[in-house]
Amino acid sequence: MSEHFDALVVGGGIAGLSFALKFARFGRVAVLTKRQRWEGSTNYAQGGIASVLAGDDTFESHVEDTLTAGAGLCRRDAVELCVRHGPERIRELVALGARFSRGPGDDFDLGREGGHARRRIVHAQDLTGREVERALLSACDGEQGRIAFFEHHAAVDLIRADRRGGRCAGAYVLDKRRGEVQTFLAPVTVLASGGSGKVYLYTTNPDVSTGDGVAMAWRAGATVANMEFMQFHPTCLFHPQARNFLISEALRGEGGVLRLRSGETFMERFHPLRELAPRDIVARAIDAELKRTGDDCVTLDMTHLPRPFLMERFPNIYATCREHGIDMAAQPIPVVPAAHYQCGGVATDLAGRTDLPGLLAVGEVACTGLHGANRLASNSLLEGLVFAHEAVEAAREASSVPPGEAPDWDPGKAVDSDEQVVVSHNWDEIRRLMWNYVGIVRTDKRLARARRRLELLREEIRGYYWDHRLTADLVELRNIAEVAWLVVESASQRRESRGLHYTLDCPRLAPVAAETRLKKPPKA
Ligand code: FAD
Ligand code: SIN
Fold it and tell me: What 3-state class would DSSP assign to 7?
């Protein structure tokens, strides 16, 4: 049996919900989420949303900062679009009920982050994402049944209706609670499935960020771009009991100082902007210092600020540090870099269209050209908002073509798995090898080693995948293996160091900046 909708949205973060909310005026929308509907990176975003809202700020300055961070690889039209439409999209969020922190005179209290020449980060203390997600979900609930949520439903593969001109016609979806695969048909499918931090052993990302959208789009034949540019956030809490907890860049925006374990500062040796240099530079500097000193972490010192200010401005970080025995008002916070953001993704135009008709991509899963080789801090929530809006018109055009029918999922001779340990072992191996060989600093030798191992693992996973009944873990394992391979392949093709891709074998910048674009060859 199949479910029919006017649009199928894979993901319930800022991108998926913003799109669903706007498209609901024109048709019925299904929103799939792998876990509870609020669970995704959006919900954990701390720093805020970058946009030109201060009287002394200009679009030109935000454009310039984005292009500089992007190291020559941003698409200028994507940057202009995003920056110029940002303020309007943020006002819409406020109109939906999002409550952002205000300063004197009821103006937004604007934060500062690395690579920004001005204070331009709209935030809700240090819980910006939670507030945005809350406001969007509550607005979706007001849509009187035009938006249907399917929680704990994982899209497994896109459906290509080849007899209808190779269009995407929806997706096969695993109902995780019932263990059944259902067919969702729609004339337009929107990937809004977020990033792929879980491909790495250490990440700030929640568990749902396993790169499913990129893997599904790739398997369906869409072009994937710039996957080598994985952004490592410089400051993730270093504590044995803290999993994934980010220490926001906004702390450095308030004067936080990075120190070695010995107390010595070091950023002055790496960049004139010191702690507020673009993220790739700060993460690389920390990596180099950890290797040089043999220490297991560096520290971020906030002790110059009064306790009441820290408690009011960063309540979540303050409380979480406290839970782990760290008093940030009195002692430096131990931090390490961790995989944070996928700058590449499914290649799209400025309206979210991929090169597979009927398939759009918005948010972190997409490569719009905004981020180039390195995303500027707090430009991601902005991108989700702006491009979801732009995609609505493209989706309306695509939704005029009926999706047609598709056969139901065929489980073949698959049997229940009796060796779950194989899945968890392979998960661990991929994440560890990506961390060790395809991390902040790369070499040809390390990439070649990662590729060899990944090719064997992919082969093994493929066999296992078709022989066993689908589980959520198996779906994700197949996807992280695919995405890891795409990162390695893209990294191997780039014969230079640019932005987030740094290799000891080609340390210089090539004279011409070019995107890495990969497309699966059609079946013979
Ligand atoms: P997400 O919010 O990640 O949502 C993805 C959705 O897709 C989820 O609902 C998930 O369940 C669903 N999904 C995934 N795969 C499937 C599947 N197979 N089937 C069904 N559903 C699926 N950016 C900023 O601009 N400012 C910040 O301050 C900031 N802070 C951050 C802090 C943290 C800790 C993290 C991790 C990221 C931060 N980022 C920040 C980045 C930003 O939060 C994300 O890039 C952005 O929220 C992505 O939004 P999204 O809608 O694309 O995806
Ligand atoms: C942060 O708060 O440091 C995260 C901001 C971002 O990823 O853009």
Answer: strand
- In DSSP terms, 501 is beta-bridged to 498
Catalytic-labelled residue, pool 37, 89, 130, 279: 279
Enclosing H/E stretch for 435? helix 420-437
Distance from the CA of 192 to the center of ligand 1, in angstroms?
9
Q: CA-CA distance, 446 to 437, in Å (whole number)?
A: 5
Tokens of 247: 């220490």
Atom of ligand 2 nearest to the CA of 126: 2
pLDDT, one tens digit per residue, over 456-494 is: 999 999 888 888 888 999 999 999 999 999 999 999 999
User: Quick one: pLDDT band at residue 164, thresholds 50, 70, 90?
Assistant: low
Domains for the chain: give ranges and CATH numbers. Answer: 2-228+343-398 (3.50.50.60), 234-339 (3.90.700.10), 420-505 (1.20.58.100)
| pLDDT value, residue 120 | 97
Contact in structure between 41 and 195 (CB atoms under 8 Å): yes
Going by pLDDT thresholds of 50, 70 and 90, the confidence category of residue 406 is confident
Q: Count the alpha carbons within 13 Å of 179 in the hemisphere toward its beta carbon.
A: 9
Three-class DSSP labels, 302-360: CCCCCHHHHHHHCHHHHHHHHHCCCCCCCCCEEEEEEEEEECCEEECCCCCECCCCCEE
- The single residue listed with the structure tokens 């010595």 is 264
Please state which of the ranges 272-281, 298-307, 334-343, 376-385 shows the lowest mean pLDDT.
Answer: 272-281
CA triplet 162, 163, 168: central angle to 5 degrees?
40
Q: Is 380 in the pocket of ligand 2 (CB under 6 A)?
A: yes
pLDDT the model gives residue 405:
77
Contact status, residue 191 vs residue 19, Cβ threshold 8 Å? no
More confident residue, 148 or 466: 148
> Cα–Cα distance between 45 and 246 in angstroms, integer?
9
pLDDT at residue number 66:
97
- Ligand 2 binding pocket mutation candidate from 49, 130, 232, 248 (most atoms within 8 A of CB): 248
Summarize the confidence of residues 128-153 as an average pLDDT. 96
* DSSP calls for 460-488: HHHHHHHHB---HHHHHHHHHHHHHHHHH
- In this predicted structure, the answer to whether residue 289 has a pLDDT above a threshold of 60 is yes
Does 279 participate in catalysis according to the annotation?
yes
Q: How far is CA 300 from the centre of its chain?
A: 24
User: Is 46 touching ligand 2 by the criterion CB < 6 Å?
Assistant: yes
Between the two ends of the chain, the Cα-to-Cα distance in Å is 31
Task: Tell me which DSSP letter residue 180 carries.
Answer: E
CA nearest neighbour of 478 among 491, 467, 489:
467
